[in-house]
Known about the structure:
By secondary structure, the protein is an alpha+beta fold. Helices cover about 30% and strands about 30% of the residues. It has one helix and eight strands. The longest helix has about 50 residues, at about 15-65.
Amino acid sequence: MRWRSPSGANRAFTLLEVSIAIFIAMLILGVGVLSLRGIDHEAKIRVVSRELAANARSAMRDSLLRRETICIEFSADGFAGPGRAGRSPWRRLPKGGRLEIRRWGETRWREPRQGEAWWFRPGQPCEPIALRLTLREGRQEMMFDPLTASVLEERISVNPQRG
């Protein structure tokens, strides 16, 4: 005995219904791929910014423990620190990367001047400073707390179209 539907006709999806379902699935997949690319780019930006933030906290801690003045030096394409001026490892930004600075009282971002440094003196707060990292993958702005030298506020924007 064969089973039959109550209406007597066999039901199936039409070609149009199948096409719409495939289109919706492809659209969802495309949005997912673009989101993952943005996450990958954000991770690349954060690698450099985490290192810079760790250097700031380390410089603050070391100045207190060693009771000596320590600095982080800046240039448009990198930074060095923590360490005594002239004796610290230099960290270059990835190709095409740029570092900008905004010191207390300044209203505009600018490239660091030759030999410009952020000083950490024992028992004193550091200068409030904001740094902006611009890489191919996007941009991150960080404002540092003068008491702890940790990131107080940050903004990140990602360029998902960049490969």
